From TrEMBL:
Family indicated by similarity: Belongs to the major facilitator superfamily. Sugar transporter (TC 2.A.1.1) family.
Limits of the Major facilitator superfamily (MFS) profile domain: 36-446
Name recorded for this polypeptide: MFS transporter
GO cellular component: membrane
Source taxonomy: Archaea, Thermoproteota, Thermoprotei, Sulfolobales, Sulfolobaceae
InterPro entries assigned to the protein according to its UniProt record, in alphabetical order: MFS_dom, MFS_sugar_transport-like, MFS_Sugar_Transporters, MFS_trans_sf, Sugar_transporter_CS
Length: 461
């Protein structure tokens, strides 16, 4: 949807379009904006805490408890991410239909139910089913949270706010891994300890569901639905000012069917770009402890090393993205991040048996993978009209999770064919293809920095 007001003329006599959300777009950073960031990001924190932060290290416990092998774990990782993938594309249209704030409360409640049931699973099939359904619930959170956050963020720092959303998610990885390490170490990796670890995963879900009662619905979505009074009130709650006069004079227009070719020119290359650039980080997320064990490190050492080498690298690189993306632009940021990703990933190939050199390179490869994928994923909440942001964000998360799911099958195959060098050669070439596809096909359309969402949408009419 493109929102337009009655046009005036500028000093040169050219008609110009007013943005009814100037109050939001031009607001200085305040506590309410960062509270909205916290409320939106706590779902992602809960996701990363539950689906990787505790899931990966505690596999040392629950695989013993259920008497299953590492190969079964690889299949579980695949189906878990498929569950999140299906959730993302299922909930996305509902987010655009029923609202951002409503749906990202409901998905946390559903997540809480299935995460709780998984703790009481009596066999691995039950455990796997309940965790996949937990993933299905959290898959819908991104399609709601990212558009919600984008539609409230000031245009000058929207890239920073969206990047910080992912820092909150990655914090869940660090906290979850440290919590898991603590309980695994004090129990000597007891087969039962995973249940206590999983109980801790319920805490951020409960807190998040409670906090989401306190924020207004997206003003842009409310206006798209014709709920002008509620849209005005949502803007007033965040900015302290009311855009009543301007909002009352708007009209809306965006013909999705007419713009399908152009939309596909955005959706397809961003899907490819996310799938390709996310895989190096996906490998480190689910298989780092097993890769380092193959190099002679102990199980607990491998778990603990995942914090500085994998999780901290994601936070560091995403914080760098938050600092630069609004200043140098999304495309320049992607060129830098993509180049570092490709080079660092390929440099791993000759150094796979040198742990001292390998770990720093994995740090850089993993961090730049997250840096690059974050830019492209966030475009789902920036490039598209109001009635497509939930769907587009869901499709982007679908690409992200499909990439993570693929590691469960690609990693064992490539390792069996050519070992770790073959694995990272594939990841380096795949990253190159992904970055080049986005740069060529999306191009300047991805330069959204400093523009309101209405200006961005208007450019594609």
């Amino acid at each position: 949807m493109v929102i337009k007001s009655n046009p005036d003329k500028d000093s040169e006599g050219v008609k110009k379009t007013h943005n009814p959300f100037d109050a939001l777009d031009n607001i200085r950073s305040n506590r309410k904006i960062f509270f909205i960031l916290l409320v939106a990001g706590i779902g992602a924190f809960a996701d990363y805490y539950n689906t990787a932060g505790i899931l990966t290290p505690s596999s040392l416990s629950y695989l013993k408890y259920f008497s299953v092998t590492t190969s079964v774990y690889g299949q579980f990782v695949f189906f878990l991410n498929i569950g999140i993938l299906i959730g993302a594309i299922t909930w996305g249209p509902l987010v655009d239909l029923l609202g951002r704030a409503r749906m990202f409360f409901v998905d946390l409640v559903v997540m809480l139910v299935f995460a709780t049931l998984s703790i009481f699973a009596t066999n691995f099939h039950e455990f796997e089913l309940f965790r996949i359904l937990t993933g299905f619930a959290i898959g819908g959170d991104y399609g709601a949270a990212l558009p919600f956050l984008s539609e409230f963020a000031p245009k000058a720092i929207r890239g920073r706010i969206l990047a910080l959303f992912w820092v909150l998610a990655q914090s869940g990885l660090v906290v979850g891994t440290l919590v898991s390490y603590y309980f695994l170490s004090i129990s000597s990796i007891s087969p039962e300890i995973w249940k206590i670890i999983f109980v801790t995963g319920l805490i951020p879900i409960i807190i998040g569901a409670g906090l989401r009662f306190t924020v207004p619905e997206s003003a842009r979505w409310l206006l798209f639905k014709g709920k002008t009074d509620k849209a005005v009130e949502a803007v007033r709650k965040v900015t302290g000012s009311s855009p009543q006069e301007t909002v009352n004079n708007i009209t809306s227009s965006f013909n999705i069917r007419k713009n399908i070719p152009l939309l596909l020119l955005l959706i397809v290359p961003t899907f490819i770009g996310i799938y390709a650039t996310a895989m190096p980080a996906g490998l480190s997320t689910y298989f780092f402890p097993y890769i380092t064990q193959s190099l002679g490190l102990s199980k607990l050492t491998s778990v603990l090393l995942q914090v500085p080498v994998v999780w901290v690298s994601e936070i560091v690189f995403t914080l760098i993205l938050a600092l630069i993306t609004d200043k140098i632009g999304r495309l320049n940021s992607l060129i830098i991040g993509g180049t570092v990703l490709i080079i660092s990933t390929l440099l791993i190939i000759p150094l796979t048996h040198n742990v001292d050199a390998l770990l720093p390179l994995i740090f850089i490869s993993n961090g730049s993978s997250v840096f690059s994928q974050t830019i492209i994923i966030n475009w789902g909440a920036e490039l598209y009209p109001t009635n497509m942001r939930g769907i587009a964000s869901g499709i982007n998360i679908m690409a992200f999770r499909l990439s993570l799911a693929s590691t469960g099958f690609i990693e064992p195959v490539l390792l069996s064919l050519g070992g770790v060098p073959a694995l990272y050669a594939f990841l380096g070439l795949l990253s190159l293809i992904g970055v080049m596809t986005v740069m060529i096909l999306v191009g300047k359309r991805g330069s959204v920095e400093g523009k309101s969402l209405e200006e961005i949408t208007d450019r594609f009419r």
